[in-house]
Amino acid sequence: MKNHLVRTHRSAERFPREEHLAWRIAEVAADPVAVAPETEEMIVNRIIDNAAVAAASVTRRPVANARAQALAHPYQPGATVFGADGRYAPEWAAWANGVAVRELDFHDTFLAEEYSHPGDNIPPILAVAQHAGRTGRDLIRGLATGYEIQVDLARAICLHEHKIDHVAHLGPSAAAGIGTLLGLGAETIYQAIGQALHTTTATRQSRKGEISSWKAYAPAFAGKMAVEAVDRALRGEGAPAPIWEGEDGVIARLLGGPEKEYSVPLPGPGEPKRGILDTYTKEHSAEYQSQAPIDLARRMRERIGDLDRIASIVLHTSHHTHVVIGTGSNDPQKFDPKASRETLDHSVMYIFAVALQDGAWHHERSYAPERAQRPDTVELWRKISTAEDPEWTRRYHSTDPNEKAFGARAEVTLDSGEVIVDELAVADAHPLGARPFARDQYIAKFRTLAEGVIDPAEQDRFLDVAQRTGVLSADELPQLNLTVSEDVLARAPKLPKGLF
């Protein structure tokens, strides 16, 4: 990996295009380097993982609405939409499938300077692959790039510090991945990256306060914008440049300001793209920084015994966890029993309380209104707070994978004055956790989430196709889709009519 210094340049300053971050990313995307076997194996795992969470969310209102919008745009050759027959415009397929993948906040994650869900790259890149008649091998190459660029940007450039949503890294990574998929030259990819970034910068209010369904829609919108950006770039249209480093560019006006410097790591020429291997998926349907606290709560239940004896709980954790999903956010909604699922998903206080009481976590039952409004849950929930611990913050930012941690130390004070303490650095499903996820665990997660939604024979068919992704022909690639019966789709809420 080579680190590239990125800073603002005045318009009058000589700044060759070859030194623009967008150009350097485009060169990585255009590099025909082979995909390593371990990278390909993990890509297949994540294709299965995305399908699992899409199946579980297929009848939820935001997903049904996004699907209805996509179905209003049939197109040939087009791309497939989860739960639907036929082919649809690739940008709208990317949109619908992107919402299905993100709605439950249950797929993969990478946490560094910035947060990210790199699996958000899969829907737009897959949609373009199906539409453009590309093979499974092409798809694997495109996804390796999408993950690599997403991870590299997240390692180096903090967005949330400046209240910019993390999907600002997704537009460029998806555009780069599509460029690799299609075998485009650096010039075209460069223009697409610039357009994708320019159209996908937005504030973090989508993940603050009264969190709405836009939390799931924002990444899908970024993927849709990436598809459209590549289309325009192929037609010869350009982008604002230099998009990151310009005098009025993203760094100067949206991030650290004209004096800020970032060091962005990118693979060198001929270097394999291995970024996906540093990412991790979720065993529980909750924000990633609450994965280890869920496992910690389950582990502490027996030691605590009678939960009514709890006087207070303090979770000592990283700055990111404290201010995003903890009491450091200063969001009263995080203690509201009538809050949306999206808000509860971002309240580690709620999550820790329910995990303590239930000893388990479920993607639907744990968020049900009757569950959130249980009086004993509300009472326990409001006894929980978070506190930033510099050591947990240091470990969160560590570049040593053996030291990097996303957990917490729980201090449970009982009404007797006794204090019970335990800590967990990484979730059980993390590569360094007690039960690391491998292919068998991804398949088990798929089976669990698809139960009652996808017919068993259809589950078998999809898993067979997914595990052969690397050798699928262009004609076979549309089989990377899930068929859902009309009876299941009928469970979705009745939707009002939109414009389309």
How would you write the strand order of the largest sheet?
7-6-8-9
How many strands in all? Answer: 9
Q: What Rg, in angstroms, do the CA atoms define?
A: 22 Å
Oligomer: single chain
**Whole-number mean pLDDT:** 96
Number of helices: 20
Which H/E pattern describes the elements?
Answer: EHHHEHEEHHHHHHEHEHHHHHEHEEHHH
Secondary-structure class:
alpha+beta
The fraction of residues in strands falls at 5-15%
Low-confidence stretches: none
Question: Based on CA inertia axes, which overall geometry fits?
Answer: globular
Query: How many angstroms does the end-to-end distance come to?
Result: 46 Å
Percentage of residues in helical conformation: 40-55%
Largest sheet, in brief, is: 4 strands, mixed
